[in-house]
Amino acid sequence: MLNWLQKVLQTKYIGLLEADVARLRAENRALMNSLLGSAGFPPVEFPEAPQAQPLPRLRKRSWHQIQAWRETESNRSTALNSDENAFERLNGPVPHS
Q1: Does the pLDDT at position 88 exceed 70?
Q2: What does the CA dihedral 4, 10, 13, 14 come to, rounded to 10 degrees?
Q3: 20 to 30 A Cα–Cα from 86, which one of 2, 17, 27, 71?
Q4: Radius of gyration over alpha carbons of the chain, in Å?
């Protein structure tokens, strides 16, 4: 119960902080354009901050998809090991010290 309450309060606090950051950015844009206008420069257009995108839902893989992925990974690792062995055969043994 305490953990749930802490999470709720943290998400509200983070939301308040994000709203405050957005407000401060808007104020900074207004102040900078005001200063530029008083100096005789045209106002600057700032691009909008990117909006937070929801994360895509992760697909759960079936057991045969996981098995196929593991087989291809093991085939790749054996192919890499065989390439290293071929290099050793061509150039002689490599000291490991």
Answers
A1: no
A2: -130
A3: 71
A4: 29
Contact 42, 36 (CB under 8 A): yes
Other CB atoms closer than 10 Å to residue 6's CB: what's the count? 10
- C-alpha dihedral over 69, 75, 77, 78, to 10 degrees? 160
Q: Which tokens is 59 given?
A: 């697909």
Which H/E stretch holds residue 56?
Answer: none
One-letter identity of residue 40: G
Q: For residue 33, what are its two tokens? A: 């354009």
Task: Report CA-CA distances (Å) from 38 to 32, 44, 45, 79, 91.
Answer: 10, 13, 16, 68, 74
- The rounded mean pLDDT for the chain is 79
